[in-house]
Every structure is written in C-alpha cells, then in structure tokens.
Amino acid sequence: MKLIRIISTFLFYIARVFSGGYILTALHVLLSVSLKLSTLEILKTGRFIIYYPFTNKRFLLGSSYTKNYIAEMILLITFYGTFFWLLSDVFKTFRQKKLFTIAGIARLRLFYVTNLIICPLLFYILSLFSVEDYPYLVMVTAHFIMGVFALFIGAIFQQGVNLQKDQDLFI
User: Fold this and answer.
1) If you count Cβ atoms within 10 Å of the first and of the last residue's Cβ in the chain, which end, N or C, has fewer?
2) Among 38, 168, 21, which Cα is nearest to 98's?
3) 132 — pLDDT class (breaks 50, 70, 90)
4) Selection from 86, 74, 155 nearest residue 114 by Cα
5) What's the predicted TM-score (pTM) here?
6) Which residues form a coiled coil (predicted)?
7) Cα dist. 84→17, 18, 70, 71, 115 in Å?
8) For residue range 9-53, what is the model confidence (pLDDT) as tens digits?
9) Higher-confidence residue: 90 or 127?
10) What percent of the chain has pLDDT over 70?
11) Strand partners, 62
C-alpha cells in the first residue's frame, strides 16, 4: 500500500499542476479577449494570437476570432482544468491512511458523474455549435471509460465503508 500512496501523491501533484495550468490559461484567454489586452493580436486573416503575459512569445493561435470560437475555447480549457482538479481529488483519496471513507466516495462520485453525464452533454452541445472539428466521439468514449472505472471503484469504496461500519459495530 505504501507504493500506491507514493504513486498517488506524485500523480496528485501532477494533476493539480495541469489543472492550474488549464484554469490559468482559460483566465488568460478570457482576460486577453474581453479586455483586448496587449497580449492579444488579431490577424488580417481572421485568426488571432494570444501571447504569454509580459512577452511577445506566442502562446495560443486561434483559428477564428469570433465569439463562438472563443467561447468554445474557453469552455473546453475550463472543462479540462476542472477535469484535472477532480482527477487530482481521486488521487488524493488514494493518499489517505484510511482508504475507505465517505469523502473518498464523494470525490469518486463527482469524478464519475462528470465523466458519464456532464462530459457527454457538454460535448454534444459543443458539437452542435462548434467552429472546430474536434473528435468529440473519441473524447466522449475516453471519458466514458474513465467514468465507468471510477463508478466501479466508487462501488468498491462504498462496500469498504459498509464493512468498516459493520466491523466498528461488532467490536
């Protein structure tokens, strides 16, 4: 179990870093576009560039400077920031000394509900209005598989909590 705690701790921090990066990126895009900061350059071709803050190095290149495209971009980046945060919470569950807890079940439930319900709905809505040609079916399938595994693990954790309660009552 010690190896699992070490690996989950490492993955917890990696997922949190990814989450922070995605959330900060979404915030940077939102601020650059809405406030028309100097980090935004609109090209004559209708595309746009967002630069790293306080530099002239390119960070993101947008295909179309339209409200729909920018909203889609910010929504997807924010979704994946949230996804990685929830994933880090799943790894947080495996870092605990006491593995089977109500808090762990709640983290797993939030993760599998996001992957099984929210993700397909979000991608379906985006596919109706999307400017980009994303492989939505592949993305939904990957999230569905992760969600099913999290659902199974959540059921195992629920059984573990029930067994712990029974054992606590027996002693």
Assistant:
1) C
2) 168
3) confident
4) 86
5) 0.91
6) none
7) 9, 6, 21, 20, 12
8) 999 999 999 999 999 999 999 999 999 999 999 999 999 999 999
9) 90
10) 98
11) 48
pLDDT of res. 170: 64
Burial class of residue 158 (count of CB atoms within 10 Å of its CB; 0-12, 13-18, 19+): middle
Give 11-19's long-range contacts (Cβ < 8 A, gap of 24+).
11/88, 11/91, 12/88, 12/91, 12/92, 12/95, 13/88, 15/84, 15/85, 15/87, 15/88, 15/91, 16/84, 16/85, 16/88, 18/84, 19/81, 19/82, 19/83, 19/84, 19/85, 19/87, 19/88
Check pLDDT > 80 for residue 92: yes
Q: Which residues contact 132 (CB under 8 A, 6 or more apart)?
A: 63, 69, 72
Return the structure tokens found at 22: 């995605």
In the block, tokens 């880090």 appear at 88
